[in-house]
Prior knowledge:
The chain has helices at 64-68, 79-85, 111-129, 140-151, 187-191, 202-215, 253-262, 286-299; strands spanning 2-8, 11-17, 29-35, 38-45, 53-57, 89-93, 133-138, 156-162, 240-245, 268-273. It is of the alpha/beta class and 302 residues long.
Amino acid sequence: MIKRILKFAGLAMLVILPALSKAQAAELIQHTVMSEGHHMAVWEKSVDNPKGIILLHHGRTWSSIPDFDLQVPGEDLSLMDGFNEQGYSVWALDARGYGETPRDASGWNTPDKAARDLANVLAWLSERSGSAIDVWGWSYGSMIAQLTAQQYPQNFRSLTLFGYPVDPETEYRDSGASEPARATNTAEAAASDFIVDGSISQQAIDVYVREALRADPVRADWNQLQQWNALNASEVTVPTLLLQAEFDPLADTGAHARVFTELANPNKQWIVLAGGDHAALLETPRQRLIQASVTFMQWLDL
């Protein structure tokens, strides 16, 4: 069974959820971590005597559970389970306005706010585990992870950027919107990243769409996008893996080359996953993605 433990205001409530598709899968536990007075949902799947601790950060539209713990009958698609199988304890953060983390009173998230939230969760997790953390970001989450590594590097062991949509030559500007749009998310949007034919079953796409819309029926809103202009690979001082899928339309090879060249820490790798797209973590390259991530983390121990 999955045991969801809700920790709130010093109280704990246990909720029993349906069994996982794999009997040996770790329990999924929900924690509430405070960041500047805001309640952040953090999900845990841990193993005994872990080789390390990984914290995952989701992308622009969908939250942690559909992205990182998708349970499909007869298929192994959960990234959290995959890292558990490699001996790592795995955590995942829902950013403000995503999944089980509510919006704050402003209704907006911002890059700087998201970086502070990730830094606060990292500090909590590092203190709890007694170790530095391997941070793994997907898409917008890779941008948040990099900004956090630049501004608050102290609890990072390593940084992985997957589906990284940044070109250092791009200048970001705010949208200028005065009020959050609170737009309704759609099934079409939920399925839009699966572009390589045969890389994922229709059953898995259907489950992903259902779970994504259940977790995030309303699209989170961002402003102050000019804060992304602070992204600067030359200020990333932690070991970094740049992980690119071959057919990812958001991951530009030329931009990746500029970023990789500028990364300040000499412990860096750039790996391309053949046949993958922006959602490769849920598709046929999934095992290679996991192995590339783990190999980099273990390489740092040599």
